[in-house]
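Structure (tokenized):
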């Protein structure tokens, strides 16, 4: 049994506040979008509170709703209380990793680190940062032997040009799903209410697995549309889906949603009331909010996450930064001199508090962000906030007609295919021609690679594409790999 609380009952309730503080928080909680009434709301309530939790608990062994109930209480704690909760969980994670996980047992001995000495978040700085290269090189030593063969295995999309494989425990999955639900609920999302996902479907499924996925989405009342298709017919199809569904919420890739919104404006196609929009995968810039707001209404919610840890931060109805999911992750912003001050941009180093299967402690995920240092949000939640993200937007290529081809097109196609493509770089010349540089993986073959290239050609919409096989892709002058290079910019 793990030496820390994992249920709502084992954790102390939020502390009481002075009367005037209580009034402020009560008012702030009105910033949470209420669930709708009527038949839609009744089905959503039954699905979210009974059907879905029962399925997850019995079939998958995940107490997601218990975690969600816990999170909806702890989010109102003070920053000091939340840090104390983090430190308690940190000591448990670090103690376990230092005892059972070969990599950390070796590392802690080398730097003379004692997990019992941790009294605050800052004490994490005694531990060296964990790089993506180290995860690749020491993969086997980072996996807890007791979880061997029991973890979930996934990979990143390779936004740095080199996909990464990793694992996480089923307990961590419960927390990840609960964190995602809480962040989405702030925007009004409820499983069981019509939701449009403008999101890639990932690996193509067939047979029983495909049927199971389709049934699950039908029960959740979720419809998926491909955001990688930007031709007018595809965009018109998404507009038709919005008109038909009248979704309660739209969830999608930021830049794909912006392209869709511009198409709606050009066609004068909006005939719906305001719809909350949850943006992910790329940063939301002021100009993006303007066009999205004109087409879908003012409730635009930015989220930040990564496949390694899932939801890291999400925006509430105050629309003033993104709350960090501090019950599940510790986020540090660092540079060459150490910790960054609020307001300064730094590399994101994240520690997953519940992944005992393959602990990622102070993992530098390649993103750059800025911490908000202004204190508690107007919503009243004690969770710290990220002021903004920097460097999340993929470089954008252009087709022959000047339409955008987001860099995430390439990332999505190569996700979980490190065995076929170890590293890639797409370069668009000033002439428009695209050269795809490929470092072949151990399982590369023409048979496995050609379907990927064929799908890519359809997204490039007639642009000349050549493939160049190389032994390595050198870094740019800044020392970082650039998976997408647009020479015409």
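Design, position by position:
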């Amino acid at each position: 049994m793990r030496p820390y609380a994992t249920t709502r009952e084992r954790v102390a309730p939020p502390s009481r506040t002075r009367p005037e503080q209580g009034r402020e928080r009560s008012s702030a909680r009105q910033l949470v979008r209420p669930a709708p009434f009527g038949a839609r709301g009744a089905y959503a309530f039954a699905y979210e509170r009974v059907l879905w939790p029962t399925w997850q608990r019995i079939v998958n062994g995940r107490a997601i709703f218990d975690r969600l109930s816990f999170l909806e209480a702890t989010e109102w704690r003070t920053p000091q209380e939340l840090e104390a909760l983090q430190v308690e969980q940190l000591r448990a994670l670090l103690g376990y990793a230092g005892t059972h996980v070969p990599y950390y047992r070796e590392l802690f001995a080398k730097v003379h680190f004692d997990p019992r000495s941790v009294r605050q978040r800052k004490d994490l700085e005694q531990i060296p940062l964990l790089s993506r290269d180290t995860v690749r090189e020491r993969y086997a030593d980072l996996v807890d032997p007791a979880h061997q063969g029991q973890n979930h295995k996934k990979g990143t999309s390779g936004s740095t040009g080199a996909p990464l494989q990793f694992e996480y425990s089923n307990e961590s999955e419960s927390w990840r799903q609960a964190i995602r639900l809480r962040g989405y609920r702030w925007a009004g999302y409820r499983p069981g209410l019509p939701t449009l996902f403008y999101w890639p479907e990932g690996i193509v499924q067939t047979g029983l697995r495909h049927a199971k996925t389709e049934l699950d989405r039908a029960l959740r009342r979720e419809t998926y549309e491909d955001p990688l298709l930007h031709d007018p017919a595809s965009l018109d199809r998404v507009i038709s889906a919005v008109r038909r569904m009248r979704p309660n919420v739209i969830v999608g890739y930021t830049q794909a949603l912006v392209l869709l919104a511009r198409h709606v404006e050009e066609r004068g196609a909006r005939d719906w009331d305001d719809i909350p929009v949850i943006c992910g995968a790329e940063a939301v810039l002021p100009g993006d909010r303007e066009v999205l707001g004109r087409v879908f209404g003012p409730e635009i919610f930015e989220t930040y996450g990564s496949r390694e840890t899932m939801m890291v931060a999400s925006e509430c109805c105050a629309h003033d930064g993104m709350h960090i999911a501090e019950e599940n992750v510790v986020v540090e912003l660092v540079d060459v001199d150490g910790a960054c001050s609020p307001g300064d941009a730094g590399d994101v180093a994240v520690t997953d508090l519940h992944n005992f299967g393959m602990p990622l402690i102070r993992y530098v995920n390649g993103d750059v962000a800025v911490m908000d240092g202004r204190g508690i949000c107007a919503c009243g939640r004690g969770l710290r906030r990220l002021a903004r993200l920097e460097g999340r937007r993929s470089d954008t290529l252009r087709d022959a007609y000047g339409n955008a081809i987001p860099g995430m097109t390439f990332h999505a196609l190569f996700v979980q295919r490190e065995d076929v493509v170890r590293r890639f770089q797409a370069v668009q010349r000033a002439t428009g021609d695209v050269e795809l540089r490929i470092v072949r993986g151990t399982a590369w073959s023409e048979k496995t690679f050609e379907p990927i290239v064929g799908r890519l050609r359809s997204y490039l919409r007639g642009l000349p594409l050549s493939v160049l096989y190389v032994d390595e892709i050198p870094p740019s002058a800044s020392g970082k790999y650039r998976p997408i290079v647009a020479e015409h910019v």
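Reviewer-requested clarification: Residues 396-486 form a domain with the GMP Synthetase; Chain A, domain 3 fold (CATH 3.30.300.30). The radius of gyration is 23 Å.
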